[in-house]
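Human: We require from you a protein record containing the residue sequence and its fold in token form, and nothing else.

Assistant:
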Amino acid sequence: MSQESLPSGTGREPADALPEYAERVLDVADLIPPGRVMTYGDVAEWLGEGGPRQVGRVMALYGGAVPWWRVVRADGVLLPGHELCALGHYREEGTPLKEAGRAAEDHLPRLDMRRARWDGGGRAEGHT
């Protein structure tokens, strides 16, 4: 997927410039309070533009500068390849988790989406 597939409409941008849509996605990620999460689709809905795949692409390309572990899959499965790092953040922040059952192949917990999901209501404390 190229940058052109990200919603924008600004045309070509300097190589070091962050696409406007990416800036907006990262701004939302910064608003999510510690211990809470939003899905890729939630972020797209909040912005009123793009969809889960576009948000996921932004997070994959540029998310390292924000609390990336707070933008998640809707099923609560931890980000493949980053499970242990994310799990450390979730435990440190007190993010609600569902412990893995004995039959779970990877023995990793999932996010408790019912309790951890943030709807963006109000504003995150410490953010304006």
Notes: The longest helix spans residues 20-31. Strands lie at 38-39, 71-72, 97-98, 110-111. The chain has five helices and four strands.
